Task: structure prediction
Amino acid sequence: MNKKNTILSMLLVLAFLMFTGLSLGQGGNETGGAPVAPANASQSNETGAPGQGALNLNYIWSFSNIEAGPVTMLINQEGSDLFGQAKYEPDSGTAWNAEVIGSLAGDKVELTMTAQKGTELFTTKMTGTYASDTITGNWTQISGGKKVGSGAFMAMWVSPDTASYTPVVIKDTVAATPQMENSNAASIPNSIVITESSLQPNAMTIAAGTTVTWINSGSNDQQVAASNGEFDSGKIAPNGQYQYTFSKAGTYDYYSKTNSGITGEIIVTDNSKSRFVDVRQYKDKIGPGGDLSGIPPGMGGAGLN
Result:
C-alpha cells in the first residue's frame, strides 16, 4: 500500500514539473524566442529607397550622349504616364525645343522626344532603366522616315523644381530671307519670286517677245501653270528657275500647282508700229495744185481718194 502511494506521488510531481516547464517555455518565446515582424513592416516599400515602391520621376533631367552637348528634359508624371518638354542649347550650332511623351513600368522607362531642328523634324525614342537616381539605356533617332542615329544614353536628375524649366529662345532668321530673294531677283529682269505663300510680284505688264523668269526661293519644289494651258513650269527645285517667252499679246492668268490659292497675272501688250501710214489723214493739208509740202516727208500722195 505504501509502495503504491509512493509511485502515485512521484507521478503527480512529474506531471507538475512537466506542466510548469511547458508554461515557462511558452513565456520564453514571448520575450526571448524568434522575433516577431514589426507592425509597420508592410510600410517599408512606401518609404524606403527608390525602386522598392512606385518611382517618382517629376524632375528636370540632363541627358547625355544624344547630342554633342547635354539635352535638358522636364518630365512630369501622372501614375505611369510621363510627359514634358526638352531643349538643346549649344554654345554654337542649332538650338531646338522638343515635346516628350512616355511611360513607366516598374523601373523601366520609355520616352519619345520630337524636335524641330531648322526645317526638319526629328523623333528620338529612348528605352532605359532607373537605378541609383539615374536612367540608362539606348536611343534611336529617325527623320524623314529614315534612321539617322542610335546609341546609349545616361540621364541624371538636376532639379526637383519643375516650374523653373523654360524653353530655349529660337532666333528667327526668316526676316532676312525676303532681302535675299529680292537681291537675287534684282539681277534678273522681268523676274517673279515664288515663296511658300506668295508671288512677288503677282502681276506684271510686259511687251510681246519678253521673257519672264520665275525664281523658287522656298525650301520645297514649286510649280506654276497658265490657266489656259499656255505654259507649265513643271517642278522648280529650291533656288531653281523657269523661263517663258510671251510672243503674243494678251492677258495670261496663272496659278501655283503646289500652293493652293496663289495666283498671278501677266499682261502682254503689242508695242509694234506699222511702217505704213494712211495718208488720207493729211488730206486737209494738201495745198492748191496738189502742193504736198504739208505732208511729212516720205508719205507722198499715195492712197488719196
Remarks:
- The CA atoms of residues 77 and 302 lie 99 Å apart.
